[in-house]
Design goal:
The protein is mainly α and 241 residues long. It is built from eight helices and no strands.
């Protein structure tokens, strides 16, 4: 609420009294809305990219309904899904320990805002007050469904579509192989590092034990020498008598 009041004051100071009044009317946001709103301040570029991805998806969907290729639709869907996943991860972390329990609601709210102009504007300005759900017909985070209605039948897949799909699969396979190789190299490096640390730790333990034994030996030797000195001192005093 303090952030809402600050924003209202800033708008009023800049001469935007009507907008300031609208902001003042906003109710306290739900936890999910608060986390999603925070993204507009911490990751404004990603929020803008998500809204653009939602618009790109709508364009691609209209093109597909008109009989266009499906490659653009798949690409737009994947890009939007990736952005939703990335922002949802940040929002879950912003909530803290309870964040995981709200991930689905966060993702659904981002999903809805990406394809709804009003919700998108509120997300951009960080003024959502409750979680939202995507409109029926639009695919959620985990998939995509073509909008119903309009009397169009789904266009048959053409040879060009199949070739494009094959190229997409080949690119994804290469990317997956590269990611796997990178992960394997990182794992090998981590294993070597762990082995080095284990060896150093073992050496440190051995050195510590040796130092402890040496300290004990020196302490015993010092105690023996002290006893000898005490006896010598006592004998000297006795002789003088």
């Amino acid at each position: 609420m303090a952030a809402r009041d600050r924003l209202a004051d800033e708008l009023k100071t800049s001469g935007r009294s009507q907008e300031a009044a609208e902001v003042k009317k906003l109710r306290r946001p739900s936890l999910v809305a608060w986390a999603v709103n925070a993204t507009s301040r911490t990751r404004p570029e990603d929020v803008a990219a998500l809204l653009e991805a939602g618009e790109a998806l709508r364009r691609a969907q209209r093109k597909a309904l008109s009989g266009g290729g499906r490659g653009e639709l798949r690409q737009a869907t994947d890009e939007r899904r990736a952005l939703i996943g990335s922002l949802a991860y940040v929002d879950v972390a912003a909530i803290g320990l309870r964040g995981t329990a709200h991930r689905d609601a966060i993702a659904a709210t981002l999903d809805a805002a990406s394809v709804d102009d009003e919700l998108g504007a509120r997300l951009r300005h960080g003024t959502l007050d409750r979680e939202a759900r995507p409109p029926a017909g639009f695919g959620a985070v985990e998939g995509f469904e073509v909008l119903t209605g309009g009397g169009h039948e789904e266009a048959a897949e053409t040879p060009a579509d199949r070739r494009e799909a094959e190229r997409d699969r080949a690119r994804e396979a290469r990317a997956a192989a590269q990611r796997a190789a990178t992960a394997e190299r990182a794992a090998e490096k981590a294993a070597r590092r762990a082995e080095e640390l284990k060896e150093r730790a073992a050496a440190a333990v051995t050195a510590a034990r040796e130092a402890e034994a040496e300290a004990k030996r020196l302490a015993d030797e010092a105690m023996t020498e002290r006893k000898r000195a005490d006896r010598a001192s006592a004998g000297d005093r006795s002789g003088r008598r």
